[in-house]
Structure formats: C-alpha cells, structure tokens
Amino acid sequence: QVQLVESGGGSVQAGMSLRLSCTISGDTSGFTCMAWFRQAPGKEREGVATAYTAGGDSTWYADSVKGRFAVSQDDGKGPLNTLYLQMTSLQPEDTAMYYCAAGALTWQQCSLVPGPSDVRRYNYWGQGTQVTVSS
Predict the structure, then answer these.
(1) What is the pLDDT of residues 117-135, one digit of tens each?
(2) Strand 129-134 to 10-13 pairing
(3) Higher-confidence residue: 128 or 53?
(4) Best exposed site among 2, 28, 108, 113 by fewest CB in 10 Å?
(5) How far apart are CA 2 and CA 75, in angstroms?
(6) Over 90: is that where the pLDDT of 1 sits?
(7) Which residues have C-beta within 8 Å of that of residue 28, sequence separation ≥ 6?
(8) CA–CA–CA angle 70, 25, 112 (5° rounding)
C-alpha cells in the first residue's frame, strides 16, 4: 500500500516562495512517474510538474510555472521517500489545492505534463495541501 502525504502549503504574498513536500511510504516499486497537480475552486485539476522516478532526474513543467517551480526527489540511500515542489515568484493565480500523485507511466507519458483528462493515469494520490497567494 502506497501512501502520499503532502505538506508545506500556506498563505503568502505575491512574489514569495513556498516548498511543498510529498512524503512517500509503502512499496514504491509499482510506479515510475510522480506529478504535482493543482486544483483551484471551480476549475479542473491540472498538472503542474512531473518527475520520472525510475532512473535519472527527468522533470517537466507546465508553461504557466516554467522557470518558477522546480521538482526534486530525495531518495537518500534508498528508495524514493520524498518529492518536493519548490515554488518561487508565486502569483495569485497559483492559488489552489496542490496534490502529489504517482503512477506507472512510461518515460514518454511522464514527459507530457498532464491535463485534466490524464488524471486517471495516476493511481496514487495524497490528500492535498492548500496554497493561497494574495496580491
């Protein structure tokens, strides 16, 4: 059983930074790609960034966050145990509930930052952490 638990959300002013963490427990051998999604009130869930976790450090970003957000992995000396999302230059439009997710995707599939219709590719989800950015 895989569990994903997000943390690090909060309320900040525009221009500030936050780092989200996704703590991973359980058997991680069943997935190869992790993603950060976000969902604002009244909007569909959208992918923000993906990371291929089955070797290497390939990451991909939605155009709206490219250059401002960065995904990184912390696997210490063993299996992947934490996924981070460093967010800088936050803007009010970044306000949303942020979720981490994991799935068994190919490298090519993982390279496509997921849209609303791709949510089903990801089998494991955390409960979300709220990010609120005020102007």
Answers:
(1) 889 999 999 999 999 999 9
(2) parallel
(3) 128
(4) 108
(5) 16
(6) no
(7) 2, 53, 79, 80, 102
(8) 40
